[in-house]
């Protein structure tokens, strides 16, 4: 059942983003930035798609002084205001056309997670220790930012900067609403393969890929059955399957040999199809005694 819901939600989200994107591309919102109203609307749609009760907004009073029944975000913001997810600004305004920043979006996600008891871990200052702009996080959003980073729901595209005051992109919104219900998606750094070891893509679909490992190096490449699947968001890589602490060696590729690998995303824990985006498959192993990674990128359109 969960797999069918997730697949259906991807189609629903794509339609939602196209409609909301057209609406939010005017006014004070840059074309690639998500408006505050569109973010609340996408979160509400994701909530309903995952079994949450829809709100009955007919006859309701305006949740904010700048969001009435005429607004395309009226229903979503009635829900967000009543649920304690969206609080707005002093004076009763929500500013739905303004771009939503990363820290504003995270506060709404954090409040939603607490309201619905999603099984996500509480964060701490230790989760932010590796970022050099951590001192720019204001008090009102710090707890939410800690939580988001801890649970793999922070997609700045940088391993060293949170960029909390930057606008949320449409790509980022799609990933946030997809991964919120699946435990997040941790950031990852991909290293270049050594000379002579390559991976070539022969075929890729939304449900799997066929790749060829080629070893033109002078040493044997030893690797396991597990591989990494990553998605690119805002220029950064984020791992979509469980990261292995150790490599369980199962196969060997001698110098001069090649081998075809057939990969299926349905075998992963979330067992879904890939929405449009840029992805990478990586295979870790040992080249002689050196631990290495070989990878190939591909796009789903």
Automatic annotation (TrEMBL):
Annotated keywords: Repeat, Signal
Residues of the signal peptide: 1-25
A Pfam entry, by short name: Big_14
Domain SLH per the UniProt entry, residue ranges: 60-123, 128-191
Keyword Protein transport assigned: no
Ranges annotated as spanning the membrane: none
Keyword DNA repair part of the UniProt annotation: no
Listed name of the protein: S-layer homology domain-containing protein
């Amino acid at each position: 059942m969960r797999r069918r819901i997730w697949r259906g939600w991807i189609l629903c989200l794509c339609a939602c983003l196209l409609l909301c994107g057209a609406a939010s591309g005017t006014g004070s919102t840059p074309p690639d930035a998500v408006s505050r109203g569109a973010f609340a609307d996408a979160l509400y749609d994701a909530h309903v798609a995952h079994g949450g009760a829809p709100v009955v907004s007919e006859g309701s009073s305006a949740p904010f002084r700048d969001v009435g029944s005429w607004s395309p975000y009226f229903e979503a913001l009635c829900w967000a205001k009543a649920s304690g997810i969206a609080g707005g600004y002093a004076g009763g305004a929500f500013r739905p056309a303004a771009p939503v920043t990363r820290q504003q979006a995270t506060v709404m996600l954090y409040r939603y997670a607490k309201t619905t008891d999603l099984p996500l871990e509480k964060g701490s200052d230790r989760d932010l220790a590796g970022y050099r702009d951590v001192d720019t996080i204001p008090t009102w959003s710090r707890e939410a930012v800690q939580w988001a980073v801890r649970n793999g729901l922070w997609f700045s595209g940088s391993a060293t900067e949170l960029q909390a005051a930057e606008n949320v992109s449409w790509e980022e919104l799609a990933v946030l609403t997809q991964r919120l219900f699946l435990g997040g998606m941790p950031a990852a750094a991909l290293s270049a393969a050594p000379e002579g070891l390559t991976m070539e893509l022969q075929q890729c679909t939304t449900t799997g890929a066929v790749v060829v490992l080629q070893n033109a190096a002078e040493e044997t490449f030893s690797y396991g059955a597990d591989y990494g699947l990553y998605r690119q968001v805002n220029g950064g890589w984020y791992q979509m399957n469980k990261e292995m602490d150790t490599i369980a060696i199962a196969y060997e590729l001698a110098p001069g040999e090649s081998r075809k690998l057939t990969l299926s995303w349905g075998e992963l824990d979330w067992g879904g199809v890939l929405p449009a985006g840029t992805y990478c498959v990586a295979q870790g192993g040992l080249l002689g005694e050196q631990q290495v990674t070989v990878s190939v990128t591909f796009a789903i359109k």
